[in-house]
Amino acid sequence: MNRDIKSKYLTYIFMTISTIASGQTLNNPFGLVYKEAITENVPGKVNIHPVTYKLNGIDIAANIYTPANYDASKKYPAVVVAHPNGGVKEQTTGLYAQRLAESGYIAITADAAYQGASGGQPRNVDKPANRIEDIRGMADFITQYAGVDASRLGVLGICGGGGYTLKAAQTDKRFKAVATLSMFNSGLVRRNGFKDSQISTIQQRLKDASDARALEASGGEVRYAANTKTTDEMADKMPFDLYREGHYYYNRTHAHPNSTFRYTMSSLLDLMEFDAATSMDLINQPLLMMAGSKADTYYMTDSAFKLATGTKEKELFLIEGATHIQTYYVPEYVAKAMSKLNDFFGKYL
C-alpha cells in the first residue's frame, strides 16, 4: 500500500471512529467517551455520581466512581485522578477512575477550574497554581465523602495532571501514595518547547504573553494560544507522536465537546516559569511513575524520577510497546498500568 493510499485509508478509519465517538458523547448519559464506560447505575455494580462543589468560589464539576456493592457505612480507600492538559473527566481519567472503582477504590476525577464543565472566567485559563489547587480541592471533597477512609488517600495524575500531581504531593501529605502515568512537565514544555524545540523563541513568547495580559487588564479581548484547528493532514506531518496521536485521540476517537487544546495566552506568564520537577525531594510518600516504553515524553518522567530522593519507596515502570497517548485508552496498555496501580495502591493504601 503506497503512502498516499495508506494515509487516506487511515484518515477514513479515524473519521469513522470519530463518528462513533461523537455518537457516544451524545448517547452516553454521563457524557463518557471511553470504551466500556458506564451507561447506567446498576445496583451491585460500579456506579458513577456526578457532583459539583465550590473551590475558591468556582463551581467544580466532578465524577465520583464507587465500587460494586458500595456501602456508605463501610470505609474504602480513595484515589484522586487528575486529567491531562486539554482533557476532561469524561476521557482517560474517567476510564482509570472506573477501573480503580472496579478494584475497590472510591475515585474522583474533576474538570479543572476554568476548563471543561467547571466554572471560571475567562475560559481555558491554564495556570499551574490553579491545577495544583484543583487536585487539593478533589482531596478536600472526596475525604468528606461517605465511606471514604481519609487515612488511605492516593493520587494518580495523567499527562499534565501528572506533573501537577507531583507538585501537589510535595507539600500535601494527605496523599499517602503518589502515582503518575505519562507525566508531562507543562512548564518545561511551554518554556522550551517539546524536546527543547522552541528555546530560541522564549523571549518573544513571553512578550506575547505580557501583551495579552495587558490587553485583558484594559478590558480588551482574551487572546489564546494553541487555538488553531488542526486537520488530519496537518497532524500526519507532525514530527512528534505525542501531538500527532494526540490530535486523533482528542479530535477523533475520544472527542468531547468540553475538551480543547487552547489556553489563554496570558497563562504563559505562569506556565513558563513553572517546572514540575523542582523540589522533588519533598516527596516522601511512596511514588510510582509509569510511562510507555516508546513514549517521546519519557524524558520528563525519567528526569523527575531521578530527582525524587526523599522517598525510599519509588518505582519507575515502563509499559512495554506503548506511546504516550496509547496509555490513555489501548486495552492492553491500560491493563498493564492498572495491574501495576493495583499492586502499588494495594500495598500502600
Q: How many structural domains does the protein architecture include?
A: 1
Principal-axis shape: globular
CATH domain topology: Rossmann fold
Total number of helices: 11
What's the name of the CATH homologous superfamily? Alpha/Beta hydrolase fold, catalytic domain
Major sheet attributes: 8 strands, mixed
Strand content: 15-25%
| SS-based class | alpha/beta
Radius of gyration, taken over Cα atoms and rounded to an integer in Å:
20 Å
The rounded distance between the terminal residues' Cα atoms is 51 Å
- What is the percent of helical residues? 25-40%
Oligomer: single chain
Pick out the low-confidence regions: 1-25
N-to-C SSE string, H for helix and E for strand: HEEEHEHEHEHHEHHEHEHEH
The strand line-up of the biggest sheet is 1-2-4-3-5-6-9-10
Mean pLDDT score = 93
Q: Can you put this structure into words, describing what you see?
A:
- The chain is an alpha/beta fold and 349 residues long.
- It has a single domain (3-185, 228-261, 275-348), classed as Alpha/Beta hydrolase fold, catalytic domain (Rossmann fold, 3-Layer(aba) Sandwich).
- 39% of the residues lie in helices and 18% in strands.
- It is built from eleven helices and ten strands.
- The strands form two sheets. It has an eight-stranded mixed sheet with strand order 1-2-4-3-5-6-9-10, with helices on both faces. The protein has a two-stranded antiparallel ribbon with strand order 7-8.
- The longest helix has 25 residues, at 3-27.
- It is globular and about 55 Å long.
- The termini are far apart.
- Residues 1-25 have low confidence and may be disordered.
